[in-house]
Design brief:
- There is one protein chain.
- With about 600 residues, the chain is an alpha/beta fold.
- The radius of gyration is 34 Å and the shape is elongated.
- The strands form 5 sheets. A 9-stranded mixed β-sheet has the order 10-9-8-11-12-13-18-23-22, sandwiched between helices.
- The N and C termini lie far apart (about 110 Å).
- The protein contains 21 helices and 23 strands.
- The protein is about 45% helix and about 15% strand.
Amino acid sequence: MKLASNYAPASYIIVALVTIAAFSMSDLYRAVIRFIDGRLLSATGFALGIAVLCAYVVSFAMNDTMFPRSALAIYWFIAFSYVVASRIGMRNFLRSHSTRRPASDAVAIYGAGEAGAQLAQTMRNSDEYRPVCFFDDKRTLVDRTIAGLRVFHTDRLADLVSAHGIRTVVIAVPAMPAERLRDIMQRLAGAGVTTKILSRLVDLADDRARPRDSIRELKFEDLLGRPPVPPRLDLFARCVRGKTVLVTGAGGSIGSELCRQIVTLGPSRLHLLDHSEYALYTIRQELVTRFPDLRIDAHLGSVCNAELLERILSDGHVDTVYHAAAYKHVPLVESNIVEGLRNNVLGAQVVASACAAHQVETCVLISSDKAVRPTNIMGASKRIAELIFQAAAARQGSKTTFCMVRFGNVLGSSGSVIPLFQRQIARGGPLTITHPEVSRYFMLIPEAAQLVIQAGAMAKGGDVFVLDMGEPVRIVELARTLLAMSGLTEKTPQNPDGDIEVKFVGLFPGEKLHEELLTDGTVFPSEHPRIMRMKENALRPSVLETCITCLMMACETHERGMIESMVKAIVSEYTPQLPDITPAQVPEPEPARLSLINKFVPFRI
């Protein structure tokens, strides 16, 4: 008793007060026990260590020789153990006895790595999903237990889905290649489950995180086979900020996305031109609602109307023009070649002439991969439009920088294959594909618009810009992937109970099996690492102008043979795909037609 009475009680009081202060500063007393997490407990342990250190310093300063300072280390261990045990125990008790609705959706996780383990723990702390097992391709992980869940090989996928009542599989493999992702989706669709993907790994470290914040449906961009190409901000606004901008074809898929991106870059004024009243009304209403203070002028009319375009450029003092107005659907243009050529060729000629006359700073033409060695009228018309812009850039004294942007299919744009497949799925199929080997390059609508805007900033005059679009995607694989994303299976002779059939209908007139983005021209790097710049052979401006005049004269006759011959005279690479006929069936060209063609055959420089 005498020894105990010699201990100074002030030291113990100081330790207690400093500990309470440390716990208060670490927010331990304000935390909701049910949602307490590891980060808070770590902060509490660190604060407790600081408190013990302070107590030691105070005790040493007071020269309290009776206080056993070695006991401070033991005190930190016991106090921290108590804090962790009491809080974690109470948290588990509250969660297990809460009145929340038990999770009804049995979920499997594909990928038994660190991301999958964190996802499983997050699911356990919520009432949205009920994780039941892992699937993984690694044999070394089979039959092991990770985060309290058994790991099975993907070979047992179909059996275990039925046995456990699994309705959803979440892919938790960061940076999975698109080709492997498409294969997994098709396998999961064959097993009758829907597929989701883990998108935000960082949130899973928080015990309060909800799975719905980190899990999302698969998107088409996940299947492109390459990451989306981000824009360079210094290039992005160079031709837009503080300038007056005109977008032709503003109501179309690319034109409307161009407008959406332009209005975020601070233009002084935006002109919209489109011949579709509904499309023009829709995009104008959207932009005015989002940016009520920006002056937006909507002009209803055709891009071939030279007087209308002259008036817009003259009255609006336009600095930058993005020419997106064109007919682009290959089968429709192929069966309406006169209107297709008039709109795509004359439209480009009117825009180029008006921009040069009014000294517009930058004019960008939106072209197509189908302009490379074209086999159809649409592609040939876009190549002629490129030649028009190249000729405009070559004219002496021109103060306008002309350039072209060439890219492949745009996912989700009007006339693209994805909306067609979606409509066919809604009708119950079949999914129609022209050929089992047909492939295309794909890009996102925002990517396309960003490429167009950046091209104007990088152009020197007469440039053709091409985006690095990775590897082409087979359309049949895209169709099967879309079926998998819809939770459906392909109906085949091997799987007669499938949902929807994939049917091959044959190539359309003028359709290629594989599109190209580059010609034999010289390729240069640009200011953007993922955008290439090309210089291609062009026609002399005077020769091109004469040829286009003859082409329009041929269009007046509505004789396909004469029109195609004039197109061939302008675009020597144009090779129309003719139906299979014997030589005796090939009509001889009329003498008048031959003389007209031979007279104006252009010479390349």
